[in-house]
């Protein structure tokens, strides 16, 4: 009861310390080599001139957690609902509008590219992706190289080509026709049964499985090698996976 009282008190007290909400800009650009909160966020107000980092090259990659902490110290609240790990800040000026300004930004953007040619099914390693300049970033271009590591190439990938979200997928840890253990956990109730995977899939992917006893087919979410789940735990895993790949 004491713990609940403390939690309740914290819940009431939290809003008093909440900062002014801000939104991360679609284009994070710094013109003078000093990255400020105003370069990063819309609505920074009086804190816009607060420096966050220095940029010596054509771009700088910032830790999203460090940026969030700097914003909080300046009285701003960035929720980072997309779960970003890094923020890329490019050099140059952003004009208010106009086709010429749009072309300038599009013609000098930082994108992740493949450092080597990769075969279909190969696991992506940290050294396999590098930043490079491109005329135009793909619509589904990832901005966090860490999220590519450990993924598998969907097809053969060419060295120097821009990275796209459709290039990779979670490694397949359940094979079609494999017997897997299906679990259900909710509010202290735990059940498990054996089922036949009707398709393969990686962790977080939904596959069809057939109960080996009843022959009934249901959908389950892959949780690991030879393992899948149904129920609330499965829904949470799907949500976590979709959040992870919301890179921008």
From TrEMBL:
<feature type="domain" description="SAF">
    <location>
        <begin position="109"/>
        <end position="169"/>
    </location>
</feature>
<dbReference type="InterPro" id="IPR017585">
    <property type="entry name" value="SAF_FlgA"/>
</dbReference>
<protein>
    <recommendedName>
        <fullName>Flagella basal body P-ring formation protein FlgA</fullName>
    </recommendedName>
</protein>
<dbReference type="GO" id="GO:0042597">
    <property type="term" value="C:periplasmic space"/>
</dbReference>
<dbReference type="GO" id="GO:0044780">
    <property type="term" value="P:bacterial-type flagellum assembly"/>
</dbReference>
<comment type="similarity">
    <text>Belongs to the FlgA family.</text>
</comment>
<dbReference type="InterPro" id="IPR013974">
    <property type="entry name" value="SAF"/>
</dbReference>
<keyword id="KW-0732">Signal</keyword>
<keyword id="KW-1005">Bacterial flagellum biogenesis</keyword>
<feature type="signal peptide">
    <location>
        <begin position="1"/>
        <end position="18"/>
    </location>
</feature>
<dbReference type="InterPro" id="IPR039246">
    <property type="entry name" value="Flagellar_FlgA"/>
</dbReference>
<keyword id="KW-0282">Flagellum</keyword>
<keyword id="KW-0969">Cilium</keyword>
<keyword id="KW-0574">Periplasm</keyword>
<keyword id="KW-0966">Cell projection</keyword>
<dbReference type="Pfam" id="PF13144">
    <property type="entry name" value="ChapFlgA"/>
</dbReference>
<comment type="function">
    <text>Involved in the assembly process of the P-ring formation. It may associate with FlgF on the rod constituting a structure essential for the P-ring assembly or may act as a modulator protein for the P-ring assembly.</text>
</comment>
